[in-house]
Design goal:
single chain, 5 strands
C-alpha cells in the first residue's frame, strides 16, 4: 500500500503545527492517531442470526478489513441474551488502513449526511473522540438496494493525546468538521 495523503500530511504539516501550538520539546510528545475502532451494536440479532452476517459483510466493505462479531459476556433473560451470543460487530483499523478510512470518512461519508452542520466536539477526557453514525448508507461502499435495515455505528478515534485539548487540536488539524470551533 502506498502512504496516504493524510499520513504524509501528519508528518509534514500537522505534527510541526502541534509542536508549535503546545510547545513540545521533542517530536515524541506530539499526539498521534493510534487506531480507529468501529463498533455496531445489534440487539435485534438475538432473534435473527442473519443480521450479524449482513453487518459483518457491510463493515468489511466499508473498512476494507474483516469485521468480527462481538459476543455477550453474560446471560440477560429480559433481553433474551445468552452468554457468548453474538450481539454486535466491530473492526479495529491501524496504520495505512486507518488513515485511508479517515480520509474517506471526512471527505466522502460525512458530507453525505442529510442536513450536516458538523460533528459534536466533546472528547472523553483522555483525548479520544467517538462519533455516532445513525445510518450506514452514508458510505459509498453500501449499495442502498441491498440493505434490509438501517443500522448505526460508533466510530472511535483513539489518540496518544493526554488531554482533550491536545486530542481536539489533532483531530481538527486532520480535518474533522467540528460544530463548535474552540
Amino acid at each position: 500500500m502506498s502512504t496516504t495523503t493524510l499520513k504524509k500530511d501528519y508528518k509534514e504539516r500537522i505534527a510541526p503545527a502541534l509542536m508549535k501550538d503546545f510547545n513540545y520539546t521533542t517530536p515524541m510528545q506530539v499526539p498521534r492517531l493510534l487506531k480507529i475502532v468501529i463498533n455496531e451494536g445489534l440487539g435485534a440479532a438475538t432473534a435473527d442470526k442473519k443480521i450479524i452476517e449482513t453487518a459483518i459483510n457491510e463493515l468489511t466493505a466499508i473498512t476494507g478489513q474483516k469485521a468480527v462479531a462481538t459476543l455477550s459476556r453474560k446471560d440477560i433473560s429480559n433481553f433474551k441474551v445468552r452468554k457468548k451470543m453474538p450481539i454486535g460487530v466491530r473492526v479495529t483499523l491501524r496504520n495505512d488502513r486507518m488513515y485511508e478510512f479517515m480520509e474517506r470518512f471526512i471527505r466522502i461519508a460525512l458530507p453525505r449526511i442529510r442536513d450536516f452542520k458538523g460533528i459534536e466536539g466533546k472528547l472523553d477526557g483522555r483525548g479520544n473522540y467517538t462519533v455516532g453514525i445513525t445510518e450506514q448508507i452514508i458510505f459509498p461502499e453500501i449499495v442502498i438496494d441491498n440493505i434490509s435495515r438501517l443500522t448505526g455505528m460508533n466510530i472511535t478515534f483513539v489518540t496518544s493525546a493526554r488531554t482533550d485539548e491536545e486530542g481536539y487540536a489533532l483531530l481538527k488539524y486532520f480535518g474533522l468538521p467540528f460544530k463548535n470551533a474552540k
